[in-house]
Amino acid sequence: MASNVNPTVRRRRLGQELRKLREAKNMTAEQVAERLLVSQSKISRLENGRRSISQRDVRDLCGVYEVEDERMVDSLMQMAKDSRQQGWWHAFGDIPYSVYIGLETDAESLRMYESQIIPGLLQTPAYAEAVISGAMPESTPAEIEKRVTVRTRRQDRIRDEERPLRLWAVIDEGALHRIVGSRQLMVDQLEHLIEQSHLPHVTVQVIPFEMGAHPGISGQYSILEFPDTSDSSVVYIEGVTSDLYLEKAQDVGKYSVMYEHLRAQALNVEQTREFISKMAKKHAQG
């Protein structure tokens, strides 16, 4: 596919436009579904960008919404066509979190809190392999290799000189203590983490145990923001069998406030590097 076409983002933008058209007609998703003889859930999935949309779907919806501007219809039809193209991650087959990868690929900034492991974008290949092997004990070596490859490919956004992802990661101290793979592997991973933290667009903070309870105590989450103001920010919460995407301004706002408190309670950048360095030495000494 063309490098400037992200199918996930295209679906989100198209869904937002279709929702605006529906709301302008003061129609509910249920009413639209009845008109088109489809399920209400299909209309909802089309609007939130979680389902691919055909040009026929767009044409039918524009008919229901009585859109008379042919240029608008043509534009929406083209968006539908673009949204059905494949992103680079589709070459790796069925990736459960492909929607997230699409969002991450197009995001301008990413704020994340991780409580159990080093964030995927900052992992070494060896650490990633050990994490995936431990989390998915029934996976075949080929499946593990595929996931490691996808994870390292995602890190291209960190290395992109023209459009690097602005990453702010707050990591719980527990992730530094957990021995993933081996102590030497942890030394290499923590040294890599310090190295990455020196990049101008990457900020890493550790929140130590001594801080006690904090706004991230309930688990990891990420907040993605996009360069196009028409694309709403997204809160991503990873699950075992399904993921949660929150896009309502009220929800994103709550998580953003929580994140500000996390950043305030965490060690500053220099203190974090010193802390990680001490943990690396501790692992090296065994």
UniProtKB/TrEMBL annotation:
**Domain named HTH cro/C1-type: which ranges?**
18-71
Highest rank taxon of the organism? Bacteria
Against InterPro entries, the record matches this protein to: Cro/C1-type_HTH, DUF5753, Lambda_DNA-bd_dom_sf
Q: Which PROSITE patterns match?
A: HTH_CROC1 (PS50943)
User: Which SUPFAM superfamilies does this entry report, sorted A to Z?
Assistant: lambda repressor-like DNA-binding domains
What's the protein name? Helix-turn-helix domain-containing protein
